[in-house]
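can u do me a favor
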């Protein structure tokens, strides 16, 4: 009888291997859960529902968009100097006028009557002054005549005195006759002296009065001119060459003195008026550049005047063309300007998007190079314009980021694309 054969027990049975493998896998899973698993909060998103943009290295210029309204470069306003009712209208709104062309005529019967009365009084006053001036001239000639007569008398008395003196020396005439002759001669000489002094005084007085009368007559003549100009002011005329605008009057209307009637737009170019948010008032200055696109071309302007009064949260500026201006542009037209706050410089930029409202420019979702997910990354945004943000820190050219709105992402740190 043969002996039984001892069968060796297998050390690595299939069951044992399966058990060890299962335990190892479980341990590895626990280790993964404890140490290697991505613990960041996730959100699965449809990639087609988001907007991804590349970070660029390009030229950047800071500007803001503002609406500019076209106005004539120079405008002269037409106001009624004298009040009255509209008697006649010679031209219509929009007419091209030369300097001095009559636009309309006002009528004011009371003013015309009053001016006629004043004119009559002035003529009377001028006539009286002229008579006074003639009287002064006549007095001058009267004084001259007196002097001539006295000189003639002196000549006679002098001869009589000299003759009597000779006779007196020869003792032909008495002392009384000689003394009478001498007294007549001395009296006539004194009269001449007095008349000459009076003539001097009269001449000085007459000269002063004549100057005063002349000035008074000049003022009255000017008053006459002004009276006639007031009548002429009832005719409203164009003060310069240009186009009549904002003119709307009807025959029979009453216009008060100083009332605005219209304006003359001078045909020497255009300017733009723009309202700018008051937040930028400290950054706006004379000479600051702006530009806009029109009919396929870019036109450049500069700020020429700043109105610092803030109304409804904005202030106004006037911008003037630098060089060429568009031919087809019209008064009252609105164009969108780009008001520059800096010159063009090299920068890292990213396209504008809705993400900024959620993050304030402090972080952004960075798209992994694999293109399968995106994660949060801290960044710092600098300047901005209507198209781009300037990235100061956190991104490099060529990287991709999500720029659309983050409203539906909550606070998830990782977005996994479906």
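np, heres the sequence
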């Amino acid at each position: 009888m043969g002996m039984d054969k001892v069968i060796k027990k297998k050390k690595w049975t299939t069951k044992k291997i399966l058990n060890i493998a299962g335990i190892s896998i479980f341990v590895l899973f626990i280790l993964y859960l404890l140490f290697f698993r991505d613990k960041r909060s996730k959100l699965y998103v449809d990639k087609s529902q988001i907007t991804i943009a590349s970070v660029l290295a390009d030229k950047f210029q800071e500007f803001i968009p503002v609406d500019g309204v076209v106005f004539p470069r120079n405008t002269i306003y037409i106001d009624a100097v004298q009040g009255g009712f509209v008697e006649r209208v010679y031209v219509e709104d929009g007419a091209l006028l030369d300097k001095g062309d009559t636009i309309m005529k006002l009528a004011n019967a009371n003013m015309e009557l009053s001016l006629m009365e004043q004119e009559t009084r002035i003529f009377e006053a001028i006539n009286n002054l002229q008579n006074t001036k003639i009287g002064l001239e006549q007095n001058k000639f009267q004084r001259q005549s007196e002097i001539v007569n006295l000189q003639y008398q002196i000549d006679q008395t002098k001869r009589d005195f000299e003759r009597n003196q000779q006779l007196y020396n020869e003792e032909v005439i008495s002392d009384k006759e000689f003394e009478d002759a001498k007294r007549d001669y001395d009296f006539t000489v004194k009269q001449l002296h007095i008349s000459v002094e009076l003539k001097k005084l009269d001449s000085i007085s007459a000269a002063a009065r004549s100057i005063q009368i002349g000035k008074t007559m000049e003022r009255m003549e000017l008053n006459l001119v002004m009276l006639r100009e007031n009548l002429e002011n009832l005719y409203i005329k164009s003060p310069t060459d240009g186009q009549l605008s904002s003119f709307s009057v009807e025959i029979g209307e009453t216009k008060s003195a100083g009332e605005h009637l219209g304006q003359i737009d001078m045909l020497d170019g255009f300017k733009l008026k723009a309202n700018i948010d008051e937040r930028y008032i400290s950054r706006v200055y004379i000479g600051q550049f702006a530009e806009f696109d029109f009919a396929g071309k870019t036109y450049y302007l500069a700020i020429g005047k700043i109105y610092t009064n803030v109304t409804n949260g904005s202030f106004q500026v006037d911008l003037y063309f630098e060089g060429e201006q568009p031919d087809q542009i019209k008064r009252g037209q609105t164009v969108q300007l780009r008001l520059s706050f800096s010159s063009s410089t090299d920068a890292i930029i990213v396209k504008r998007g809705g993400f900024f409202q959620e993050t304030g420019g402090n972080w952004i979702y960075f798209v992994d190079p694999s293109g399968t997910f995106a994660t949060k990354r801290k960044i710092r945004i600098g300047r901005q314009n209507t198209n781009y943000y300037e990235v100061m820190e956190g991104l490099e050219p060529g990287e991709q980021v999500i720029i659309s709105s983050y409203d539906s992402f909550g606070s998830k740190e990782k977005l996994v694309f479906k």
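Residues 225 and 339 are 52 Å apart (CA to CA). hope that helps!!
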